[in-house]
Amino acid sequence: MLRAMKGQTDSARDPIPAVPRLGVNVDHVATVRQARRACEPDPVAAAVLAELAGADGITVHLREDRRHIQERDVRALRGFVRHMNLEMAVDRAVLAIALDVLPQAVCLVPERREEVTTEGGLDCTRDPVGLATVVRELSAAGIVVSCFIDPDARQLQAALGSGAQAVELHTGRYANARDAAARAEALDDLRMAAAAGRELGLRVHAGHGLDLRNVAAIVAIPGVEELNIGHAIVARAVMVGLERAVREMKDAIEKAAAGLRQRRSAREEEKS
Ligand code: PXP
Fold it and tell me: Residue 2: its pLDDT value, please?
């Protein structure tokens, strides 16, 4: 069934980067600021430092309740960072801001006021027409749109049907798995979803709950070209500084990608 819609988008024909890009989510810098309704720490300054330390892009989530990132942060960021990925709900008010600010990328996420963080993936099957309308408006403005989804065949198909160029696979079940068996199963689902997504012509990103210990297995999934990581980097930054925290994550991703390349070429040498 997944193959039936193959070829609808050209995005997966773009080469996959040898090392997945790192998008640093700076929401939690704003969380600390909002705890006191103060001016500091400034997520825009943090974003600039993160890019200087090697981040390939900056991600922020403008939530309806404005619990961390504010509209003015989004507007300011656009002028300061090279690549901005705006996470947003499928909502007309935030859509208007996105179309005015024009980030390079938008990731459509579900949003519930009572949640601590984004809990599940977006249900792309719930309102396909509404979703496709928002994707069309964003895409027409030149924004690369992804849907944050659970690694599930129906969601991949629905995301493709919406016209989105990319999916971001929710890695939370893998990251929060209580034992090795549950982790292996979650990883298998991510692997299968990444392969199916590429097969359908979608770009594949991943994120949620990733940290220095668990990121390597996600880097090892063929086809994953971008990782969005927030809490682990900002939490580590409190201890060692933001530049070091970003650098450490970037190094972990590069090391995992290099290991993968070595294993692949060893296998190819064995075959020949
Ligand atoms: N990707 C998406 C779509 C998210 O909603 C979040 C959380 O804001 C992340 C990635 C980053 O998750 P974490 O903060 O757990 O690294």
Answer: 42
